[in-house]
Amino acid sequence: xxxxxxxxxxxxxxxxxxxxxxxxxxxxxxxxxxxxxxxxxxxxxxxxxxxxxxxxxxxxxxxxxxxxxxxxxxxxxxxxxxxxxxxxxxxxxxxxxxxxxxxxxxxxxxxxxxxxxxxxxxxxxxxxxxxxxxxxxxxxxxxxxx
Length: 146
Fold this sequence. Notes:
The chain is mainly α. It contains 2 helices and 2 strands. A hairpin with a 5-residue loop joins strand 1 (11-13) and strand 2.
């Protein structure tokens, strides 16, 4: 039998007695192609993941910007609500003062003995005479000579 060297493909003998190397070249080439394809697939997948990561980072930045805008809008609305409450409080105080003045005036009138002003009766105009026809119909058509 033939000796085998470390790292060399196995040697077989043919029926004629001549040694022949095993057809490993094609097997190694196929395995190398598969390994290279796996490597290219992993590189492509990594590139896809990097693009997706960049997309998610951009989305996160946009969301943070939107949150900041919403917070500013909220602060503006809260300031507007506070201003409206202060305005309502001022108006309520003014109405309270005005109603107190009116009530004090009515109380003063009652203390005087209920003096009533004598006003003449209202003149109500008499109702217009009822015409069976409107005035434009009663006058007739308008001509240039008249």
